[in-house]
Amino acid sequence: MKTGLKLAILAFSSMIIVILAPSIGMELIPPFGGADPLQFTIYHEIRLPRVLTAFAAGAGLSLCGMVFQALFRNPLADPYTLGIASGASCGAALMVVFGCTGTIIGLPIVTVGAFGGSLLATMLLFGFSFYRRSVDKLTMLLAGVALSFLFSSLLMFFQYLGDPHDSFFIIRWLMGGMDTIGYRSLLMFLPFEITSVVIIFSQLPQLDHLLTGDDIALSRGVNIRQTRTLLLIATTFLVGAIVAVCGPIGFIGLIVPHLSRAFFSWKHVWTGPATALSGGVLLVISDTIARTVIAPTEIPVGVITALLGAPFFLWVLFTTSGNGKAHEF
């Protein structure tokens, strides 16, 4: 089957899933809410915004994972490689521990703190790289690992300072979730997502060249420093915005790019759209399971993605090379 046809089928299937997912819950309701006013309200004002938020978040995280795996030529890279998620988590925990409540420009203070933490991590990352006058993949990867450890340590410190209620809230937030009513949460990170997706899609052909190695990419006229910087800025801001709203949802950005390459193509002009659609659908399905499997209690969606992702991570780890170690693409 041709790749274009497979992508069209995926797009149509994604649309059907997004329409049907809001109908599933403690009580099944007709698609679009039917004629009953209460069901119509539940569908359009509670469940549909949640599904759209999950789809947008899954698409964004998956695209970022695809970009990181290409930039670092590492099959185990994901959106949390550079410490952006850890910075966002640390910012959210800081707001909780110090009792900051209320809203800023209509957004919960915890969300604002999380986004501020992600911005701080981004500035530290690029500040260190430009101080070293290097944005090569090894420098960025090592700096990201160091930042991740730093923010994780601060997060544990903030949890220790907080009372049991604060600690529980922080732990629950770290599991990720789509606990949203209305479209405010979606509209918060949608401008970042649209801008980042446009940038990423404009650079998809360059990712093919980067996978061949810096020397070959240079010989083909790719401005490696500019391309890498542009993509890293777009992805880090997108990850920060999503994590600020939904919390750190792991493994989506690791799983989906591999599946897209396996079922569609290694060419990023095809892999990009397939990854975005597949990531959105996977997170929608995961969130639907999370809110229905033991209803009325909800499981944090991060738990579901971790249950899916951990075995997949081990599979990638032990199949990417004969000695059980991940290697570069």
Question: How would you portray this structure in words?
Answer:
The protein is mostly helical. Helix content is 72%, strand content 1%. The chain contains 13 helices and two strands; from the N terminus they run αααββαααααααααα. The chain has helices spanning 3-20, 37-71, 84-97, 109-131, 137-161, 164-174, 184-202, 204-211, 214-219, 224-246, 252-263, 268-292, 301-319; strands at residues 103-104, 107-108. The chain has a two-stranded antiparallel sheet with strand order 1-2. A hairpin with a 2-residue loop joins β1 and β2 (107-108). The longest helix has 35 residues, at 37-71. The chain starts with a helix and ends in a 10-residue tail after the last helix. The model is unreliable at 322-328 (pLDDT under 50).
Query: At the first level of CATH, what is the class?
Result: Mainly Alpha
Largest sheet: 2 strands, antiparallel
Number of helices: 13
* Average pLDDT for all residues: 85
Strand content: under 5%
Task: Reconstruct the topology from this structure.
Elements: H1 3-20, H2 37-71, H3 84-97, E1 103-104, E2 107-108, H4 109-131, H5 137-161, H6 164-174, H7 184-202, H8 204-211, H9 214-219, H10 224-246, H11 252-263, H12 268-292, H13 301-319
Antiparallel strand pairs: 1-2
What is this entry, summarized?
With about 325 residues, this protein is mainly α.
Main attributes of the structure:
single chain; 329 residues; mainly alpha; ABC transporter involved in vitamin B12 uptake, BtuC; two-stranded antiparallel sheet; 13 helices; globular; disordered C terminus
